[in-house]
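PROTEIN DESIGN WORKSHEET
SECTION A - STRUCTURE
LENGTH: 451
TOKENS:
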């Protein structure tokens, strides 16, 4: 296969999940897909009615039956990849699927690479680049909100928004370059306030998309929620309580947790990546000090810090030194069943007893409030850009800001036009409207085999 062209050989891969199942789906795509399936099925693919499941037998080179299957043929561009495709539903045992794929390889196909089916769909114009990325977002979605965002992107939501920005920018560039190239035609250069307002409108649209970047990161990766505090404050107990299972070892012995433990919890449809960490104290051994170092690293990267403190002890006995963090901090006062020490009176924090579970619902409410979680806050924001989109949008915005500066300083309009064309190219990268082979390779290499 050659990236960046639409002249491909034929590929095959298991399109359903690995492991044993009742049925497995094998996909063959490429110019010779029907002929390859035909060789493996004694002509059944060639006789099949397009887009209708047909019963067939996959035979080995000696004519022995490997499996009794259902075969669906897609001719021409009427397929997911935009080229001839044969989909084979066979029995889902590991051995039988391997044998069927091996037979298709013998008949002329080659094994597909990660994301190669989706990449072909993009290169044949069936999907834009944001839609192709949404395929993987759909597969890896951990929550209903992430699923909704992936569906919106798959339906072209981001492509439509960035496409509208490109159209506006193309109009502005065309107007400016017409004035540069044909000054004798007396075309109004409109490079004053009106032209600047046009560029500013495009920048406002870019800013709106950039504002969804953090939401997109959280939907795709989850909220990094780090549980920290002094040893024996109840950090592991809090992890177990929130998860509803005994995930972490709980002991009265200080320093039991030596490394981070990570689990995912869905809260109002948003994944929280709960990270239990080693207790923070000065008097620690070599191994425990390494755990503390990792705790501080996690705290720096956290979106939310749940600082667990033992409310039965004096305030000074549960103080922890934390590094500067981008995340919000929520104090959890644990062991309230043992009696709250007078020094905690009027101190802010969520009162909790991890042992009996009292206070867990107020804690959940506080987490929701701290992160603005919930349908009312997130439900209307179906479009959420990813890191690649954000980088493209930032480059476009920087170029447009420079174009405005050049125009306001009275610089040659050709210089402003160059910056605007740079912005146009950056916006085009989002949907793949420019020839960026390296970008394509990086994106599709993250896909699973069979997509």
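SECTION B - SEQUENCE
RESIDUE ASSIGNMENT:
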């Amino acid at each position: 296969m050659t990236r960046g062209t639409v002249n491909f050989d034929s590929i095959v891969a298991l399109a359903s999940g690995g492991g044993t199942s009742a049925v497995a789906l094998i996909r063959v795509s490429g110019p010779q897909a029907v002929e390859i399936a035909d060789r493996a099925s004694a002509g059944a693919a060639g006789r099949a009615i397009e887009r209708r499941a047909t019963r067939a037998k996959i035979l080995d080179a000696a004519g022995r039956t490997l499996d009794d299957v259902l075969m669906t043929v897609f001719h021409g561009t009427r397929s997911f990849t935009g080229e001839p495709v044969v989909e084979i539903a066979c029995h889902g045992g590991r051995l039988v699927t391997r044998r069927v794929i091996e037979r298709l390889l013998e008949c002329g196909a080659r094994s597909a690479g990660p994301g190669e089916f989706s990449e072909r769909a993009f290169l044949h114009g069936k999907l834009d680049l944001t839609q192709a990325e949404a395929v993987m977002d759909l597969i890896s979605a951990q929550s209903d909100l992430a699923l909704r965002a992936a569906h919106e992107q798959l339906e072209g939501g981001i492509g439509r928004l960035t496409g509208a920005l490109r159209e506006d920018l193309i109009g502005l560039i065309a107007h400016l370059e017409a004035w540069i190239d044909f000054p004798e035609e007396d075309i109004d250069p409109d490079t004053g306030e009106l032209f600047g307002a046009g560029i500013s409108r495009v920048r406002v649209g870019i800013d709106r998309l950039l504002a969804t970047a953090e939401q997109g990161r959280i939907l795709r990766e989850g909220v990094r929620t780090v549980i920290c505090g002094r040893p024996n404050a109840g950090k592991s107990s809090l992890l177990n309580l929130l998860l509803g299972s005994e995930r972490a070892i709980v002991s009265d012995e200080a320093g039991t947790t030596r490394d981070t433990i990570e689990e995912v919890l869905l809260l109002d449809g948003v994944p929280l990546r709960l990270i239990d960490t080693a207790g923070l104290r000065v008097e620690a051994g070599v191994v425990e000090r390494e755990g503390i170092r990792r705790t501080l690293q996690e705290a720096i990267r956290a979106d939310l810090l749940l600082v667990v403190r033992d409310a039965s002890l004096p305030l000074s006995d549960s103080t922890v030194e934390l590094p500067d963090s981008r995340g919000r901090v929520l104090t959890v006062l644990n062991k309230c069943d043992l009696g709250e020490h007078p020094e905690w009176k009027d101190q802010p924090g969520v009162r909790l007893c991890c042992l009996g579970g009292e206070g867990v619902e107020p804690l959940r409410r506080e987490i929701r409030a701290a992160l603005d979680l919930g349908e009312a806050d997130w439900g209307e924001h179906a479009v959420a850009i990813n890191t690649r989109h954000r980088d493209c949008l930032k480059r476009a915005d920087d170029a447009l800001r420079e174009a405005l500066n050049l125009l306001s300083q009275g610089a040659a309009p050709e210089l402003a036009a160059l910056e605007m064309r740079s912005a146009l190219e950056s916006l085009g990268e989002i949907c793949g409207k420019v020839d960026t082979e390296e970008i394509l390779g990086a994106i599709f290499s993250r896909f699973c085999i069979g997509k």
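SECTION C - NOTES
Residues 232 and 251 are 8 Å apart (CA to CA).
Residues 157-181 form the longest helix (25 residues).
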